[in-house]
Amino acid sequence: MIEDHVGLERCNDFVVKFANVNGSGSASANRLFTRAVLRMGVPATPRNVFPSNIEGLPTWYEVRISEANHLARHGDVHLVVAMNPQTWDKDIAEIAPGGYLLYDSTKPLPPSKFRPDIVVLGVPFTAICNGEYGDARQRQLFKNVMYIGALSALLDLDVGEIERLIGEQFKGREKLIAANLHALRLGRTHTLETLACPIGLRVRRADAVGDRIFIDGNSAAGLGAVYGGATIAAWYPITPSTSLAEAFQRYCRRYRVEPESSRHRYAIVQAEDELASIGMVVGAAWNGARAFTATSGPGISLMQETIGLAYFAEIPAVIFDVQRAGPSTGMPTRTQQGDLISCAYASHGDTRHVLLFPEDPHECFLFGAAAFDLADRLQTPVFVMLDLEIGMNERLAAPLHWDDARQMDRGKVMTAEALESAADFGRYLDVDGDGIAWRTYPGTHPNRGAFFTRGSTKDGRARYTEEGAAYVENMQRLLRKFRTARKLVPRPVVSQAARPARRAAIYYGSTSPAMEEAREMLAERGIALDLMRVRAFPFQEEVMDFIAAHEQVFVVEQNRDAQMRALLINEGEIDPAKLCRVLSYDGTPITSRFIARTIAEEAGVPEVVPLWKATP
Amino acid sequence: MTFVAKPKLSHPELPRNRLGLTRRDYEGAVSTLCAGCGHDSISAAIIRAFFELDLPPHRIAKLSGIGCSSKTPTYFLGRAHGFNSVHGRMPAVATGANLANRDLVYIGVSGDGDSASIGLGQFAHAMRRDVNMVYIVENNGVYGLTKGQFSATADVGARSKRGVTNTESSIDLAALALVLGASFVARSFSGDKAQLVPLIKAAVLHKGAAFIDCISPCVAFNNHAGSTKSYDYVREHNEAVDALDVIVGRDEISADYAPGTIETVVLHDGSILRLNKLAPDYSVHDRVAALAHIQDRERAGEIVTGLLYVGPESKDMHENLNTVATPLASLGDAELCPGSAALEELNATLR
């Protein structure tokens, strides 16, 4: 149907997109593909694009293979594995010219269903399956493994790596291993016998993965909560944060069971709603435990009142916000960085909250653990701002390490002994000048240190008051405390351009890989950019200094209203003209191509040729 | 509205409990509620119950939501930590507090607005979750702080002080608690301390969620003729099913009762509830019958009070969650952090 020679030639640098039906069992086969590429030492970054549905709707799994370590979404698709007739036309249209299509050729399709400028590869998966398996579910599941077998032939994948992965996955279940290997070989053999293999897209063994691990951000954050000493999780199921609470449970079962009694050193409560989950977190933290909730934008909206209570009554709370596209229900299974402002200033009245912005699963773990120290030290809510892109997708990330000498920082807590020897105790007295007062846990001392916690105004000794002066003093102390927070939160990461740059970009969270690649693309075109990755709110002085040191600063983010830019302007009193918006918010992860194009246009150098097109 | 500390002076011959404490040691700040408010009588009953139970005041945590009732924890147990949280959210905050430290005694004070309207959901889930706590609703059928609007417990046909008649059907929190699976349900009246004090004591001793719906007239906005939550109305229509005597484990049983009228309930710690049955056919262990009795008498215009239901010793939230005996808040790095070696092992499985 098409001449072989038009096919693209790309080695260790291409995108494979699997078009599947939700609930068909394709996820584990697709994951097997990615892991096989990783085992060959070639970085691969998968992204799930899935509907808010359990079964029957289209779902895609896009893998970027990049020996050069570009982990961002590419934007092009070089090979489509089309297993969903519903989305056929859209999927075919997406293939880059010269790209490839692998499809189930059991039923003949008219030529009009194809494109002349792509390479069409047909394997009769259904026919092979029907000949091999009687059970309908088996036919479906093994068809998935079979197309991985076909890909191993087409892309020159080391089939031994796939076989080893199957062996590891089903360890101890020999029948399953044999059945999967059989399906794998069926697909591979048929492809080798009927099609010219390999095609122009190839995976060649390399050494570009190193010691990195492959994990999703929600799992890493849940693990971080275990290491951070969280004992109580109260949550309400919501995409895309559910797997964070589930990961916490999984790791607690492994690491938090008292050996002698089999009882739990943790409590996980599925609350009746987000109003209750944040209430439980606040109650637990008030009583001296480390507690967290995991949620997404709609949950943050519901929690506002109690977040304000925690701010004003000064109670630690850790909130993982795995952001999705809002407002309202928005696009529940699509990514966005849209909750910055609703978290930074959550609740009515004058409030400010600490936010952390992890860029990948590694930082999800680090910040997930550090958030509990920060919350205890600052006696205030701390938000860990993930998004669906890093939360629900596996990523290559630096391995996780822990310093065994590290201890939990429980902050300023008066023990019974301290109360005995102290001359005085007032819950909200700023005795150290850093805005952070000393607190006591309930039940500490028979007649010292008890106080009444309330969301209403109080004096330094926690006594109810409506005196304006006492109120203002308290609000000023809270500002002092917020300034103290600047010294404690993760500092920004700066990366200077190869030569002095008058332009710079500020970015955060899951935008990292796209921003880094975009910088390379722009450098090729002669646009030098200094980069600053902001990792926390409140902003340190060096963030404002960085802005002051450049003529033009692009603020790259994944929301419509430039929320980070608004925070920078508001908190740093920055001239808005200086901060250019680079905004991608269609629900798909931001691409390097988009960032490079937008910045080049703003900088007056519009015609950027992407790296992958500039190189042969 | 300001904080008024109570003078520390007390009479040297005040009776002392087993801890050597007097009733004054269980008091809080001076109440700022209206003179004659039913809530103050409930605070006094709470003070007396805890004093008589010989509980160290600082090992109690008192929590509340928002409203007149929710202010009252300031007025009792001044040595205990208190938490006046958010409107309708006391149950969640108390649940979290209880999760953190299972060793303290928890008393949550709420009102009919707090629990039957804005916080109805949280009330329901605290009951079904069986949080080990005393949950008292100081029920006056009216919003006091905002000056007299009906609450969701106001009866159909009740007339407000401004002359408005309530048309929306009322929520009976005690009946609801029964339906929700609460393991201890009682109703009382702030004007009947003889009934209320033993009920609070029993609620404290009971393991699991112990709910007391305490009718507590609002002298400012709901104590007039035409109200069904006034002192006069409740006195007239109060129909107790039992009279309770609480005998803490080590106490000797001394009271005499006529045979056949007494039912004994042994609690998990060996304490005994002696029920002098006033409604001869009433069974305190039959949830369905309790509900039927309440509704039947309500139809006759009566308010059923007393210990309405006590379940067989149930598993509380901690047992259901299988948590360790040590309070979770007391666990340290050694118990909580899996350490570097575990992490290195985990890394190896993620490649």
Task: Characterise the protein shown here.
The complex is a heterodimer of chains A (616) and B (351). Chain A has 616 residues and is α/β, with parallel strands linked by helices. Chain A has four domains: 4-202, Pyruvate-ferredoxin oxidoreductase, PFOR, domain III (Pyruvate-ferredoxin Oxidoreductase, domain 3, 3-Layer(aba) Sandwich); 220-397, Thiamin diphosphate (ThDP)-binding fold, Pyr/PP domains (Rossmann fold); 416-488, no CATH class; 493-614, Rossmann fold, CATH 3.40.50.920. In chain A, strands 10, 11, 12, 13, 14, 15, 16 and 22 form an eight-stranded mixed beta sheet that branches. A six-stranded mixed beta sheet of chain A has the order 3-4-2-5-6-7. In chain A, helix 10 (297-313) links the parallel strand 12 and strand 13. The longest helix of chain A is centred in the first third of the chain and has 21 residues, at 174-194. The two termini of chain A are 26 Å apart. Chain B is of the alpha/beta class and 351 residues long. Chain B has one domain: Rossmann fold (3-Layer(aba) Sandwich), CATH 3.40.50.970. Chain B has twelve helices and 13 strands. Chain B has helices at 38-52, 68-71, 90-100, 112-118, 120-129, 173-180, 193-205, 231-237, 287-299, 317-321, 333-336, 339-349; strands at residues 60-64, 81-84, 105-111, 133-139, 142-143, 149-150, 184-189, 209-215, 238-240, 242-247, 262-266, 272-277, 303-310. In chain B, strand 1, helix 2 (68-71) and strand 2 (81-84) form a beta-alpha-beta unit. In chain B, helix 1 crosses helix 7, helix 3 packs parallel to helix 5 (120-129) and helix 4 (112-118) packs across helix 5 (120-129). Chain B starts with 37 loop residues before the first helix and ends with a helix. At the A-B interface, strand 9, helix 7, strand 11, helix 9 and helix 10 of A face strand 2, helix 3, helix 5, helix 11 and helix 12 of B.
